Amino acid sequence: MKISLVFSKTDPASRSMRGALAESGLNGGVLGGFTLEVVELDRELVYAQAEDLPEADCYVFLSRHVGNRSCFTLHSTGNPGDEAKLGGSPRTLGVAAPLLSHALLKALTHSSPLPVVYEATHHGPTDIGRPCIFTEIGVSQADWTSADYARHVVRSLMRALTEYDPPTGRAACCFGGPHYASRFTEYALTQGYCVGHIISKHAIRPGDTWLVEAAVRRSEPQPTYALIDWDGLRGEQRRTVIEGVEALGLSVVKL
């Protein structure tokens, strides 16, 4: 399996992680059962296009996180709504990578100097055509340029790949709750679910089933479970999600 590690020259956190990778002596080659290629772009990663990237089975984008809390985050890409302010296309999801995402989550939480949390699916790129994961450091300039934080991400990446052994048959998509998906993060870690797309409550329109189907279809592998933050959805939203995932043959797990 070939993985491209994608960095941006315009992103301070990405530059820090690229430096930590070089410091580790890992600049491509084989690690565990994976072939790695390092890619550096001259643009922000959210605006990456397929033509910017070499052929690969999966792309890991190493980026800064902008928000309201210092943390390490992981998320799939996509624009569930009608706008695409940060790259990609509106109402389009990228392809999720639940197994590798789970391996990265476990590795990042090991002796982490910051909280680790899944974010809901958001921003571009959406049109790469292969699985993509964003791994981020945030939220301040001090966080982005921290050599210790960058080294932690690189060590975690190496750990995830060398110890890669995801649970079988546990791929899941998630619905409901806030953007910072703490409940799904904890459940993935304690129950062994491999999370792909997370669709927050703000993105789910009652009766609009395309997003539910996209969260299932746009994942490699496709999920067999739908995790639902029961209290994190209104009644009409729940019905839309449950009807959609059950029509696709998924098992529903209520949190």
UniProtKB/TrEMBL annotation:
One of its GO terms (biological process) is D-amino acid catabolic process. Gene3D superfamilies: AF0625-like. Pfam families: tRNA_deacylase (PF04414). Binds 2 Zn(2+) ions per subunit. Its cofactor is Zn(2+). Its EC number is 3.1.1.96. InterPro entries: Deacylase_DtdA_archaea, DtdA. Keywords: Hydrolase, Metal-binding, Zinc. GO terms for molecular function: D-aminoacyl-tRNA deacylase activity; Gly-tRNA(Ala) deacylase activity; zinc ion binding. It is an enzyme of class 3 (hydrolase). It catalyses: glycyl-tRNA(Ala) + H2O = tRNA(Ala) + glycine + H(+); a D-aminoacyl-tRNA + H2O = a tRNA + a D-alpha-amino acid + H(+). HAMAP family: Deacylase_DtdA (MF_00562). Monomer. D-aminoacyl-tRNA deacylase with broad substrate specificity. By recycling D-aminoacyl-tRNA to D-amino acids and free tRNA molecules, this enzyme counteracts the toxicity associated with the formation of D-aminoacyl-tRNA entities in vivo. Belongs to the DtdA deacylase family. PANTHER family: D-AMINOACYL-TRNA DEACYLASE. This is D-aminoacyl-tRNA deacylase.
